[in-house]
Amino acid sequence: MDDSGAPAAPDSRLDGVVWDVVVVGAGPAGSSAAHAAAVQGRRVLLLDKAEHPRYKTCGGGIIGPSRDSLPPDFKLPLQDRVHAVTFAYDGRYTRTHRSERMLFGLVNRDEFDLRLVQAAEQAGAVLLTGVTVTGVEQRGGDQRTVRVTAADGRVFEARAVVGADGSASRIGRHVGVSFDQIDLGLEAEIPVPPEVAADWQGRVHLDWGPLPGSYGWVFPKTDSASLTVGVISARGDGERTKQYLADYIRRLGLSGFTPSVESGHLTRCRAEDSPLSRGRVLVAGDAAGLLEPWTREGISYALRSGRLAGEWAVKVAEAGEAAGVRREALNYAFAIKAGLGVEMRAGKQLLAAFERRPQLFHTAVCTVPAAWRAFARTTQGHTDFARLLRENRAARKLLAMAAR
């Protein structure tokens, strides 16, 4: 529909096109995939059910690996630059650490995702919104294409498809993605007076929570005078997770302010043997269950896996026989497992130890300089959890102590 309410004119760019790559989902993973394929001069269609900009439940932390995976010349719409972290253990034993160098940046996801979509379009991808994908059909024989069907009956045909349609992915179901960790995140966007926003400027709050594996966060969006406050815990205890968020907001002295948005979502981590492709269809980001298991950080995983998916989707599109398609899809899976998969394995080790001994982790990061430096270096992108456990004896010792 256009602004007058009349049906929108057909887009001639879509008529009878067999696309090289169709990407389903225009979040960070999908936009990165579309950009990576489009910069190679391929015909790329990017589908999304929502119009951009749109609200997304997410703290909006941009750590080093996220920054390093953005398209060239991408300008981050930063709301704040974090130089300090206040740690707490279920509201107690508070300690603040500061860093001369920025630890990470904070964005509003509506602005960030919109700019990623625009970068993909500038690279040559065609964006089509208002499309809810309901079916995927792989066509063999002489066709060698994938047909993507929308709820309104439209059909899009491509030589390769990237599924990046979130943690409840329709494309992920087609591929057969399975999960071994599902968590519930709850979040409130709280507008605050300028003087309250100023108190939080440049500082985030992390609270190791009362439920196994849980924690809470305050991420200040100083430029828009709001605080993103959230908690996450394993799915299955929703009422206690809701109570944790309410208690957390109250302890922070923020219960007198009315949230502009209250939302929740499930995060899903892939099982280690979960597939990443099926025929000419690849999955990336949340659709593949790719996120950091301990912190549940997903933006960097989305950007990195999306870029890889876009690059390998081009190779899948160019492959002729089924054997060539299988080879390129396996190469994509290997690239993911050799990088993000190794990091996820380390994150699952850390989560298991954290669930047993959260106070030990809190004591370490608050009182052991090496632990604080490791935290800072990880957020800045100088190391990751896998390298930390492999190269840092103190980190391995902490893990061993937590396992006792």
TrEMBL record:
Signal peptide residues are none
**Entry's Gene3D superfamilies?**
FAD/NAD(P)-binding domain
Instruction: List the InterPro entries hit by this protein, alphabetically.
Output: FAD/NAD-bd_sf (IPR036188), Geranylgeranyl_Rdtase_fam (IPR011777), Geranylgeranyl_reductase (IPR050407)
Q: Native species of this protein?
A: Streptomyces sp. Y1
According to the UniProt entry, its GO molecular function terms are:
oxidoreductase activity, acting on the CH-CH group of donors, NAD or NADP as acceptor
Identify this protein by name. Answer: Geranylgeranyl reductase family protein
